[in-house]
């Protein structure tokens, strides 16, 4: 009987210990999205060596596996290496979406000089997935041999990894484009009126530093409905609203900001909503995004077709198809109110 009692005591003590560890873990996980790296350990640096790479852990459903020491495996573009563009058009695009890249190359991505300012276009991709991933990679390399405008990093390209894609894009800009003035991150399903954008950036009222603009959401609520696509539980972010940020469809940034954003990113555990995460980084920096002079410059839910007057004023607008984007580009050349 005594032996049985001793065994039961040991089992009880073990169970209590396991429960204690579990509740400590839940308590830690239940804190807000703010994250501090372990002391004396450089979790992320754009120039860190492979040996300094942080050990990968499953980020869970609301975060992404970043900071990490991702590598560029395709990067032979002359942009910012043998050229110094005033404005860089950065287009994150799915590896398989050759059609969108070709359409952009023939339309707004073909505008190379506006008002005497050099403009260049770069497409950024991650690793292709699916059963034909190897074939996609072969096609990407062949495409880049033709155009030399692709940069590719070794993260898995997916919708849930857009934050990684954005941060890797910032790394590339910090490494190569310190002499340039601005970049715009713009999705591949957008029409971009490059002359209107350059006109905005050359305006004396446009800040040259700490500048980020687009369609700014000032009081974006954090959605708590678990059935919503952008659901975010309170244990990840406790605040009721995200800090202000420009919608990810298109935002313009002065090229002093990428380095600053990267400098604070290790302090904030990255969520999968990439534009909201940039807003969190801006808040940490004490920097606010800027509304454009006219809200009609950036349109996320347009009423198609756009009028000639709208096309004469717009900078970036979401489109429904490649033919529509192409049509807007042609019409914008002669559009007026």
From TrEMBL:
Pathway: Protein modification; protein glycosylation. It is an enzyme of class 2 (transferase). It is a single-pass type II membrane protein. GO terms for cellular component: Golgi membrane. Keywords: Glycoprotein, Glycosyltransferase, Golgi apparatus, Lipid metabolism, Membrane, Signal-anchor, Transferase, Transmembrane, Transmembrane helix. It is found in: Golgi apparatus membrane. InterPro entries: Glyco_trans_31. It comes from the Eukaryota. GO terms for molecular function: N-acetyl-beta-D-glucosaminide beta-(1,3)-galactosyltransferase activity. Its EC number is 2.4.1.-. Residues 36-56 are annotated as: Disordered. GO terms for biological process: lipid metabolic process; protein O-linked glycosylation. The chain crosses the membrane at residues 7-26. Pfam families: Galactosyl_T (PF01762). Belongs to the glycosyltransferase 31 family. This is Hexosyltransferase. It comes from Parambassis ranga.
């Amino acid at each position: 009987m005594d032996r049985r009692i001793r065994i039961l005591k040991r089992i009880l003590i073990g169970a209590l210990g396991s429960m204690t560890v579990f509740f400590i873990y839940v308590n830690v996980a239940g804190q807000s999205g703010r994250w501090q790296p372990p002391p004396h350990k450089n979790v992320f640096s754009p120039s860190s060596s492979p040996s300094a790479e942080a050990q990968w852990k499953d980020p869970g459903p609301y975060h992404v596996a970043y900071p990490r020491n991702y590598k560029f495996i395709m990067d032979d573009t002359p942009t910012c290496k043998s050229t110094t563009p005033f404005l860089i058009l950065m287009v994150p695009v799915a590896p398989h979406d050759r059609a969108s890249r070709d359409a952009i190359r023939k339309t707004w991505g073909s505008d190379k000089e506006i008002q005497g300012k050099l403009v260049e276009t770069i497409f950024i991709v991650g690793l292709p997935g699916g059963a034909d991933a190897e074939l996609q990679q072969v096609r990407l390399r062949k495409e880049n041999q033709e155009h030399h405008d692709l940069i590719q990093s070794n993260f898995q390209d997916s919708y849930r990894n857009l934050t990684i894609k954005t941060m890797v894009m910032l790394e590339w800009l910090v490494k190569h484009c310190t002499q340039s003035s601005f970049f715009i991150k713009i999705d591949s399903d957008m029409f971009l009126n490059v002359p209107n954008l350059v006109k905005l950036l050359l305006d004396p009222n446009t800040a040259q530093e700490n500048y980020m603009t687009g369609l700014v959401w000032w009081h974006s609520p954090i959605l708590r409905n678990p059935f919503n696509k952008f659901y975010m539980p309170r244990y990840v972010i406790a605040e009721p609203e995200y800090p202000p940020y420009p919608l990810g469809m298109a935002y313009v940034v002065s090229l002093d900001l990428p380095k600053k954003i990267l400098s604070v990113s290790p302090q904030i555990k990255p969520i999968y909503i990439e534009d909201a995460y940039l807003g969190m980084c801006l808040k940490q920096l004490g920097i606010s995004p800027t509304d454009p002079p006219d809200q009609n410059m950036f349109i996320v839910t347009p009423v198609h077709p756009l009028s000639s007057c709208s096309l004469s004023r717009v900078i970036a607008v979401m489109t429904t198809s490649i033919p529509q984007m192409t049509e807007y580009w042609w019409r914008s050349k002669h559009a007026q109110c």
